[in-house]
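Trying the structure run again after the queue cleared.
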Amino acid sequence: MTSIDAGPDVIAEEAGKMPALLGPWALMWRQFRRHRLAHFSLYVVGLIYVVALFGEFLSPADYLETNTRAPFAPPQAIHFFVEDADGQRRFQLHAKGLKMELDRVALRRTFVEDESKVIPLSFFVRGYDYKLLWLIPTNVHLFGPENPRDRVYLLGADRLGRDVLSRIIMGTRISMSIGLVGVAVALVIGVSLGGLSGYYGGWVDTLIQRLIEFLRSIPTIPLWMGLAAAIPLDWPPLRTYFVVTIIVSMIGWTTLAREVRGKFLSLRSEDFVVAARLDGLTNWEIIRRHLVPSFASHIIASLTLAVPLMILAETSLSFLGIGLQPPIVSWGTLLKEAQNIRSIIEAPWLLIAPGATIVVAVLALNFTGDGLRDAADPYAH
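Done. Tokens:
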């Protein structure tokens, strides 16, 4: 213990030995970093959103461009060495061309590698025109054929000869943004109605809780089908996108509202709330400045776990044909291409590629949400 007569140097030295007092957000971050799987998943989620943001730059081809000569073209392998005319091997990223053959036994067309055709691949190549970040006109792409007229299908092609890899990359933007926008809508509705229900109680609580119970009692798929059927077919894609986002959010807010109500019920009689009320603060100021921030970390964790549910809901709607429709590209509309047995038999990559992408994204978001939920109350560890 430092004496009151000690000099400033001694006091500073003793203060340096004392443990630092961390705020709630610093404690939450420190606890989250200990969850290694969640920490790694956070970087995966960040990478996915980078892909969504720079989709055109990362896409090797135009995701809407069709090729009548390459329907159901299989994935092409990347080779690293080529032989010169004198027989020497040198490093060169490339893919072999594809040529179509007729399988007279199965009576269907097949593709085989054309050893005589080499398609050089490189980084930062020229391709189709686009606007980087919707602002900068350019035609530079991260990776692709050196000749813009060549086509390489690293994850295969669909029934119209469109590049599956480019379509998955561009579909990331729609599917992941629907998760964020849907969670934002659920946040506003859930915190508002849940806060009113828990803070005021009485008939307000009864009315809101009966509404939540009514919505949760309706089967999810029929409800979505009914709401989606009300969307006019002649609406532009952007308007349809926002309406589908609202439809997906119709159920997501109920769980958050229940959790917020429970927190408000336990906090509304605490000393700091009574002191704020005696200090003359309005009910809205008490809710906004004291109650909501007191469990903001819990809300963030709950919303992180809700994002994958929103993504799966959009995927289900689009797969069933009642969500987003072409030309909008999402992971759900890509899975719709693999609805029939013929497509799965002839082109299994139409199911595997977008399916694996959805699994990785949902697992990463779930692991991140689990880590945030565990770290939301760092004093409990």
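The mean pLDDT is 82. Worth checking whether this holds up in the mutant runs.
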